[in-house]
Amino acid sequence: MKRIIYAILLFMAGNITVQAVNTEIKYISGTDADNTVKWDFKCDKGRNSGKWGKISVPSCWEQQGYGEYTYGRYYIKNQPLSDESGHYRTEFTIPHSWKGRIIEIVFEGVMTDATVTINGKKAGGTHQGGFTAFSYDITDKVCIGKRNTLEVHVEKNSKDQSVHAAERKADWWLFGGIYRPVYLRATPKTALRDVAVDARADGTINLWCAPIHGNYSVRMGITGVQDTAYRANHVISRLTGNNGKSTASALFNNIKPWNPEHPNLYMLSLELLDSADNTVHSDSKRIGFRTIEFHHRDGFYLNNKKLEIKGINRHCFYPETGRTASRRLDLADAKLIKKMNANAVRSHYPPDGSFLDMCDSIGLLYLDELPGWQNAYNTKIGKQLLKEMVIHDANHPCIFAWSNGNEGGFNYALDSLFARYDPQQRHVIHAWALFDGVDAHHYPAFQTGVARMHNGYQVFLPTEFLHSQYDKGAGASLNEYWAQWQKNPLFAGGFIWVWADEGVARTDRDGQIDTDGPEAPDGIVGPHRELEGSWYAIRDIWSPIKIAPVRITPRWDGRFLLHNNFLYSGLDEIKLLYEIKNVSSPLINQAHEAILEKGEIKFPPIMPGETAYSYPVKWREADIFNLTAVNAHGDTVNTWSFPMKYADQYFAKEKANTAGRHKKQLSVEFDQTSGMLSNVRVNGKEVPFNNGPLPVGMKMKLKSIEKRADGADSVYVMKYTGAADSIVWRITADGLLGMDAVILNRKDGGKFDGAFFDKSIENLGFSFSYPESEVKAMQWLGKGPYRVWRNRQEGMCIGLWDKEYNNTVTGESPQPLVYPEFKGYHGNTYWATVISESAPFTIYSETDGLYLRMFTPEEPVNRRKGQNTMRKFPEGDISFLMEIPGMRSYKPIEQLGPEAQPSHIRINKGDEGIRIKLWFDFNPKP
């Protein structure tokens, strides 16, 4: 019995000892936007000001119904700047077990100037700067075991002019408040503080911490996070002093290094030991073993592998919570970015710690930037904020480099200080400048490159390019930009601007989304992460698996040529699944897809950078061959589709099965002077499809009309001068209307007087009129589900698609945003049904590569300076086109690559010309 009691006492003593030496955390606020705590609050100006109320902490006070809203470009627009201050008050208790320990209060982020008092005593000086964590030692100001009063006075705008210029004159919404968590931290008087770890790919750990005087050592051990069976022996290293810090080192064997494709993580346990090997303090850090290096005139290397950074700029922002994040939404963002095949993120300020945790966990590199949007902090404050940022973030393996400000917001006196706090000695760049071996030029034109960029001899990493405002975005011209830059081995990658529309849900407008006009609808996704077409284009362009173009014909050998564009992974980590489909048209019955075969495509081992053919797959005649690459987590890496029939072959197959087709009476009328369709009637009922074919991008003049019978069909043969040689209209016995046009086959246009096609071709084909008000939806076989532009074709697959009518203006429409947009250009159209209650019809194409234009998208009302975001659409409502325009980006079309530029026409003697052959069925099945 005595032995049992003695053992229990020893166990309790052991517990007491462990408890006494551990770092302990106690939250005073909530932990994130999803888990808040109510504090007392009073705002001095604006909404709900001048009285005490309750506020959720953490939060931005504007989103809690206090103060006023300001977008950071107010100074350009001569708008008023909201300048309220807020006063917070709450109580907390200190556990008795914390007696004799150092007690700190930690604020992860406050906007912008924070004055903290504990029990009426100032905790320290006012902290200025809204994006970094800060703390105060309040040991001598708190009462153990009693209620303590915390008060925080927050100025929304800093009293320091350099902080105000760096953070509040910026291209983002300006919020106020305690927007990140607040907690108490207790440590022993002698403790490991400001721990920064360099965990290298060979298993070496170099540890830095704040100076500890005396004879101390550190015991280190690691445990696998994913590989929970991994346990490493504890290694004891003597702490030594060096340049104002204490250091220690260790070596662990058989570790798995961290990289974006294999984000292996470990928990590093740390015990501070005194001279008698007693544990004085214990703590832990989550780390990844990897070696990050920058080599001038070469590139960034991770574990001896040169990086190609596929980056996205991102604001820490959500419509309902503003700058206050939640782990749930951070994880969703990180996953969605990763699924787009990006591998890196940048923001204009240090993000909330939870997002860096997510990047560590799922494998996203991070460029961590000291704020200074276009103006720099003064040196005194800049030194403090830089120290806070680096010490807070240094142990995240996702961080591959630091950035000192943005677009001129550089304080050069701070550059050398990054290395003072970072044992990894990560490189420092200046975002948009050519500085210290990295050209981070912003928004280069495709042609940019006089002795720099792809024509230069320095590493180049544009930290902002292809501005995504409205539908200008991101995916447009990315393919050719990337291919151009990849020609130079000094290309390190780039960061697209920007991840999401920064639209705030205004609490003073019943939750209406506000992007401050054209200032903030800049995203690849919407405010609530609605996917725009560019998301799919980027996923395709940045796919780590490249498949060479192939045309599936009867002579195809069943193989695909695969290139492995991963940095670290073999393609054995990917499954490549296929489906062979038939797609029936509505020519007889309702359209539907049928999967004829499916399986997995096998291929030999293909390592990064290698190219090889897959093993042949047995296939059968069908309509579409689809491929889907899936990673080990079950996520789709990319999808591809390959048509198995040309358009005329597909229509011939469908037409061959129309023996039981219901016949109807179709009558048409043509204008005798222009040859345009003027009236269509089905069984005596008028269909409002007319005023075509109106030539687009060309001119033609009717010369003659001949009507004749061809068996049971009625035929109208129209001859023209100009771009069109002839158009043959055919009314079949079963009620189809055919149009067979031959264009651009005569160099002189049949002796046409003057030019008969545009010098620069943006649209080319024919248009018709059809009232938009009649349309309810559309179904089609072709590329989808999103519209395309000449320079944004990627990411869309040929298939059977449906979408209801919407009038979405990308990035601007009232919420919720409805995507895909209904209006615009649709690629590779085989057929399309316009669904209408009163006048439905289906169009069939026998012409390959035909674009279907469905109406004209509206321009954003709030577009900048009234400049159109899209090139002019053709006249009419529905068009059938062989050419469409490109979509501009931040740069005008003329400064983008060849894919964005208009086409040109050249006709040689003997050319057969271009044939646009269509069929119209004015009685499709519902």
Quickly list its features:
926 residues; 9-stranded antiparallel beta sheet; mainly beta
The number of E-state strands comes to: 63
- Average pLDDT, to the nearest integer? 95
- Uncertain segments are 1-19
- Gross morphology is elongated
Q: Tell me the Rg in angstroms.
A: 33 Å
Q: Count the DSSP helices.
A: 10
Which strand order do you get reading across the main beta sheet?
Answer: 51-52-53-54-63-60-59-56-57
Beta-strand content bin: 35-45%
Can you walk me through this structure?
With 926 residues, the protein is mainly β. 11% of the residues lie in helices and 36% in strands. It is built from ten helices and 63 strands. The protein has a nine-stranded antiparallel β-sheet, covered by helices on one side. Strands 2, 3, 5, 8, 9, 10 and 12 form a seven-stranded antiparallel β-sheet that branches. It has a six-stranded parallel β-sheet with strand order 33-32-31-30-29-37, with helices on one face. Helix 4 (327-339) runs parallel beside helix 5. It is elongated and about 110 Å long. The protein starts with a helix and ends in a 5-residue tail after the last strand. The relative contact order is 0.08. Residues 1-19 have low confidence and may be disordered.
